[in-house]
Design a protein that fits this description.
By secondary structure, the chain is α+β, with helices and mostly antiparallel strands. It contains three helices and nine strands; from the N terminus they run βββββββββααα. Strands 1, 2, 3, 6 and 7 form a five-stranded antiparallel sheet that branches. It has a four-stranded antiparallel sheet with strand order 5-4-8-9, with no helix packed on it. It is elongated, with a radius of gyration of 32 Å. One of its GO terms (biological process) is cell surface receptor protein tyrosine kinase signaling pathway. One of its GO terms (molecular function) is neurotrophin receptor activity.
Length: 167
């Protein structure tokens, strides 16, 4: 059955790497869990390993991880004879703005400042939203008409020579 030989905390090389070595014959299939959920490999998080005899060695690689990637990483090795798993804590970045005010939701923050905006007020399906859009469109149309009138007036009256002089 598979046996996990090593599992190391993340180290920064070119990318962050959680190094591992797994022994098993037949060669086990490997997959990862992040906080108990199956980890899908992407361009940002992917596994690279090579098989040398009965030992698989490699890294779970992270390209510029953030605080969202912090958590417990579990490697699971499985073959026909059994399975093995081991967990390690991965800590990449601190959560930004750890103060109390930033742990509130945006709407709680606005209310704490005395603002009464609610999510319904900004909802694109609400009457207030359509009213706001109609006001914005009306102001834009008024500005366009005003600019056209000014342009016409400047062209009509701006061509007269001053003091009756012809140039």
């Amino acid at each position: 059955p598979p046996r996990i030989l090593t599992l190391e905390e993340p180290v920064l090389h070119l990318e962050h790497c959680i190094a591992f070595a797994v022994h098993g014959n037949p060669a086990p299939t490997l997959h990862w869990l992040h906080n108990g959920q199956v980890l899908r490999e992407t361009e940002i998080i992917h596994m690279e390993f090579y098989q040398q005899g009965e030992v698989s060695e490699g890294c779970l690689l992270f390209n510029k991880p953030t605080h969202y990637n912090n958590g417990n990483y579990t490697i699971v090795a499985t073959n026909q004879l059994g399975s093995a798993n081991q967990t390690i804590k991965g800590h990449f970045l601190e959560k930004p703005f750890p103060g109390r005010i930033f742990s509130l939701s945006y709407w709680d923050f606005l209310q704490s400042k005395g603002l009464t905006m609610t999510p319904e007020f900004l909802c694109p399906h609400s009457k207030a939203f359509f009213f706001q859009v109609s006001i914005a469109v009306g102001l834009a149309a008024f500005a366009c008409v005003l600019l056209v009138v000014l342009f016409i007036m400047i062209n009509k009256y701006g061509r007269r020579s001053k003091f009756g002089m012809k140039g």
